[in-house]
Amino acid sequence: MSDAGLVAKDPELLVEAARVFNAAGREYRTAAELVAEMALKAVQNLSSDDKKDPKKQKARRAAYGDAAALRLSGRVPGGYQAALGLLNAIIDTEKDPDPDGRLHLLRALAKGQSYKDLRSKDPHDPQLKDLRDQIHDDLAAAFQRHYDLFKEKDQMKKANRHFWQPEPGQVDEDDLKLAYEDAKANNEALATLLD
Amino acid sequence: MDTGFALAILAVILIAAVVVALGVAVVNFRTAIAAAFCNLCAALRPSFEGFTPERATTQTLNLLTAAMAIFAAVLIAWGVGAGVMRTAWLSQLFKNELGGGSAAYLRSLYLLPFEIVRAVGGVLAIGLAAGLVGAIVGFIFGIPSQVSASATPPAEAGGTVPARGADPRQAANAWRLSTNLTQVSDWLTKVIIGVSLVEAKAALIELLNDAHAAAGYLFDYRHGSPAVLAAVMIGCAVFGFLYAYLYTELIISRLIVAVDRGLQPGLAAAALTLKNMATITEALVPRISRSARAAEVSEQPAADEVKAALQYIGISFADMLRAGATPDEIRSWARAKALLNDYQAAAQGYIRLLGMQQP
């Protein structure tokens, strides 16, 4: 195997490279998506010993988060179902997998997209209430974890408000808008959390 | 015995001796000869699969060396022929002078090797001299110029954006290689180009006159020597220029960059700081976000990390490759560029580290 092949197995390098390609502009978008997928495969193939290494755990969280974000934004196929599969796999199976709340926020967004999908099929589906509650729980966990780490109140809420209160004409990222509006109409905790 | 017949016999003997010598060489050095032949073929038909700068550099210089070897072989063959022809001409003179007989033949026989050496040596000496002139010009044209930190383009022009809290003055280095030769090179390059544009015709006429004069001294203007020596002077000057230019650009510039980097006191420490910084941190590069609007979180790099990154201002990816940087050094360089928000430059480093193709 070439040196490049050996290096490519290092998940930390792959995550770092994918993020640099993503930040480098349109020209490198495909490279970012490709390398992010390579990073995901690399962390999925970690041995049980590697999974105990704090650096590798961080790489694992980052690779799962990046892969879920790419699916939720439609840059990588799979949509919210694939993103939910990835996020459930890491949040529900690991001890403290999300110190800054990012993965819980992404899972709330994935459930928000699922909510939109379900509601477009049947606005009175009884599962909708359950989904709103799940979104509330994930967002509350995300905000709390972010505050615990950075000690800045409401920072995450302010940075992500456009997901439930998009500016006029901006509908491409309104993942939580319908869930928020329905929660507000029913005076639910989700609306209180997001206001 | 007729002079022409005697010379024909001498030529046959000479060819036979060359064939025997070649046969002995092939038997004794067949592995080395086969390797040299393979290298020559590889140089003439370079492969660009698995492209790396090191391999491309080797192939470029091999190709040029092969072309020079072929040119030298043609010159030597012509020199041998000219030596034999001149001996034939001289033997005719001896025959007229000595009235034929064994004395004239012996004198011709005695002179033949010297005439060949004289012809080949003369042609090669002229070629080497022309090649040296070309090489000096090529070296002057090929010396790399240094971009100082203050000379880096502004952000609006595609330059780097200093990280928050960074003081650009920190990028100044205590020691630099002497740039005297670079300055002389810049000046001479401009002068040579300027003078060449004005005096090109006069220079060509002067070169042809010199070739004509050398043909007169060496071969009494016989055997097409005025044309051949003009070709020798032009060809060797071009080869000398190309070889020295490429050698300076591809190899000597690497050494200069490597030594220059060695003179920078903080660079080794900077590389270590960047190597040891946390790998997955938003201070280095934002995470991939669901949103195209803003980063989910923003972290600040540590002051020593910013200081380390600033050491890399003015060092391009090409400089790193020229200096033969290791993967760790390339990663430190790429991280420095990412910390300075120059993600396009940083991407080049990661492409190299992952063995990918530039998009």
Provide a descriptive summary of the structure in words.
The complex is a heterodimer of chains A (195) and B (359). By secondary structure, chain A is mainly alpha-helical. Chain A has eleven helices and no strands. Chain A has helices at residues 3-7, 11-23, 29-44, 48-52, 54-72, 79-91, 102-121, 127-150, 155-159, 177-185, 189-194. In chain A, helix 2 (11-23) packs antiparallel against helix 3 (29-44) and helix 2 packs parallel to helix 5. With 359 residues, chain B is an all-alpha fold. The radius of gyration of chain B is 30 Å and the shape is elongated. Residues 148-174 of chain B have low confidence and may be disordered.
What's the end-to-end separation of chain A, in Å?
55 Å
Largest sheet of chain B: none
Our count of helices of chain A gives 11
Task: Kindly estimate the percentage of residues of chain B that lie in beta strands according to DSSP.
Answer: under 5%
Keyphrases for this structure?
heterodimer, A: 195 residues, mainly alpha, 11 helices, globular, disordered N terminus, B: 359 residues
SSE blueprint and pairings:
The complex is a heterodimer of chains A (195) and B (359).
Chain A: H1 3-7, H2 11-23, H3 29-44, H4 48-52, H5 54-72, H6 79-91, H7 102-121, H8 127-150, H9 155-159, H10 177-185, H11 189-194
Helix pairs in contact in A: 2-3, 2-5, 3-5, 5-6, 5-7, 6-7, 7-8
Chain B: H1 3-28, H2 30-44, H3 53-98, H4 102-142, H5 180-219, H6 225-263, H7 267-276, H8 303-310, H9 317-322, H10 327-339, H11 343-354
Concise synopsis of the structure shown:
The complex is a heterodimer of chains A (195) and B (359). With 195 residues, chain A is an all-alpha fold.
